[in-house]
Amino acid sequence: MTNRGFVIAFLITLIPTILIVVSCQNEPQVIGTLEGTVNIGPIWPVERPGESRPVPPQVFETRKVIVYSESKTKIIKTVDLIQIGQSSKANYSVRLIPGYYVVDVTHGGIDSSSEVPRKVEIRPGQTVVVDIDIDTGIR
């Protein structure tokens, strides 16, 4: 085989390989979504069922949804709560790469929730809903 023939055979092999490698690197990574609603209450002492007073935005600004690694040794995301009007409810949403995570909330004072911490699996293109009720302990 001549040098010219070798170069042509080499290029014929090399060019498709380069194109495959480059196209694989440009593919977007498929992600999933974790979202839900957070309900916080009671906000005021001696709240009666059905009673609805405006909730100050600070109630939500001081609390976050925390997404940890599966072993809960590393914080992956800290997610803000978006208050719904002036109600005691807020929404959150975060996009994550597929995998296992632990969902929790920041705890202020004597806050508690039976819904978290909770282990979740995020799958490509799917949404996992974790609704959280936070009991403030106010009575």
- Sheet bearing the most strands, described? 5 strands, mixed
Write down the secondary-structure element order: HEHEEEEEEEE
Integer-rounded radius of gyration: 25 Å
Poorly predicted parts: none
| Class by alpha and beta content | alpha+beta
CATH-defined fold name: Immunoglobulin-like
User: What is the number of helices?
Assistant: 2
CATH class: Mainly Beta
Task: Give structural notes.
It is a single chain. This protein has a single domain (32-135), classed as Carboxypeptidase-like, regulatory domain (Immunoglobulin-like), CATH 2.60.40. The strands form 2 sheets. Strands 1, 4, 5, 8 and 9 form a 5-stranded mixed β-sheet that branches. The chain has helices at residues 3-25, 58-61; strands at 32-41, 64-69, 75-80, 82-83, 89-96, 99-105, 118-122, 127-129, 132-135. It is of the alpha+beta class. It has 2 helices and 9 strands, in the order αβαββββββββ.
What is the compact description of this entry?
This protein has 139 residues and is of the alpha+beta class. The protein is 19% helix and 37% strand.
List keywords for this structure.
single chain; 139 residues; Immunoglobulin-like; four-stranded antiparallel sheet; 9 strands
How does the SSE layout of this entry go?
Elements (H helix, E strand, L loop, with lengths): L2 H23 L6 E10 L16 H4 L2 E6 L5 E6 L1 E2 L5 E8 L2 E7 L12 E5 L4 E3 L2 E4 L4
Parallel strand pairs: 1-8, 1-9
Antiparallel strand pairs: 1-5, 2-3, 2-6, 4-5, 6-7
